[in-house]
């Protein structure tokens, strides 16, 4: 079993590899993507790399977000997914992030977009997040974090809830749909009773 120091080094190495992959992909996708990858900011278990607006919109469209939906973004960063869900699709929502700076930015962005009455941002660990209101959950995390989070998602979410992930899948739980936007991928799953039985355990 790895000691705490070894686990920390392993996580640091993994995050460094993640950034390297982003940079390599960005070099193939143009200078705008290089600038995006350079915004990498390690906080907690997940680096902060903003999702481009066109990918945010594609995620929400893939999840078929409507005004009746409640969107929860885990690792919300500056709140752009929840804000767009409210502004363009009329949904309500909540973002969760460990970084208080990102939460403040998210609240400011919601105010600027005129949707502060429909969205809320909570500072906290995504593994402790209250998901009971969600009809849609959005993710841009890391492969190992997705897998660690999978049991919570399937245990806490109601059947019929849609999950959308930017870039990373859920291991052997196959997505219902997958789209590609250049070098980026977006995955969609719908929570079912069968999926809960098969994958809703650690």
Describe the structure.
The protein is of the alpha/beta class. The protein has 2 domains: 4-38; 46-199, 3-Layer(aba) Sandwich (Rossmann fold). It has 7 helices and 9 strands. Strands 5-4-3-6-7-9-8 form a 7-stranded mixed beta sheet, covered by helices on one side. Strands 1-2 form a two-stranded antiparallel sheet. The longest helix has 26 residues, at 4-29. The protein is globular, with a radius of gyration of 16 Å. The two termini are 18 Å apart.
Quick structural summary:
By secondary structure, this protein is α/β, with parallel strands linked by helices. Helix content is 44%, strand content 21%. Helix 3 (53-62) packs across helix 4.
Order of helices and strands: HHEEHEHEHEEHEEEH
> Radius of gyration in whole Å, from Cα?
16 Å
Strand order of the largest sheet: 5-4-3-6-7-9-8
CATH architecture of the largest domain: 3-Layer(aba) Sandwich
Please supply descriptive tags for the structure shown above.
alpha/beta; Rossmann fold; 2 domains; 7-stranded mixed beta sheet; two-stranded antiparallel ribbon; 7 helices; disordered N terminus
SSE arrangement:
Elements (H helix, E strand, L loop, with lengths): L3 H26 L1 H7 L3 E3 L2 E3 L4 H10 L7 E5 L5 H10 L2 E6 L2 H14 L5 E5 L12 E4 L3 H14 L5 E5 L10 E5 L2 E7 L2 H7 L3
Parallel strand pairs: 3-4, 3-6, 4-5, 6-7
Antiparallel strand pairs: 1-2, 7-9, 8-9
Helix pairs in contact: 1-2, 3-4
């Amino acid at each position: 079993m790895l000691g705490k120091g070894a686990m920390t080094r392993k996580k640091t190495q993994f995050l460094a590899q993640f950034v390297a992959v982003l940079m390599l992909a960005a070099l193939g996708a143009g200078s705008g993507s290089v600038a995006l990858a350079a915004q990498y900011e390690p906080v907690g278990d997940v680096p902060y790399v903003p999702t481009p607006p066109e990918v945010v919109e594609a995620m929400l469209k893939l999840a078929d977000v409507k005004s009746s939906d409640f969107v929860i973004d885990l690792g919300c960063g500056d709140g752009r997914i929840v804000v767009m869900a409210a502004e363009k699709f009329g949904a309500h929502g909540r973002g969760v992030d460990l970084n208080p700076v990102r939460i403040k930015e998210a609240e400011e962005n919601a105010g600027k977009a005129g949707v502060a009455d429909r969205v809320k941002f909570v500072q906290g660990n995504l593994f402790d997040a209250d998901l009971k209101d969600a009809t849609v959950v959005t993710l841009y995390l890391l492969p190992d974090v997705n897998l660690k989070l999978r049991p919570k998602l399937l245990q806490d979410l109601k059947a019929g809830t849609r999950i959308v992930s930017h870039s990373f899948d859920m291991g052997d739980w196959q997505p219902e749909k997958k789209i590609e936007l250049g070098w980026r991928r977006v995955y969609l799953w719908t929570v079912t009773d069968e999926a809960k039985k098969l994958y809703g355990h650690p």
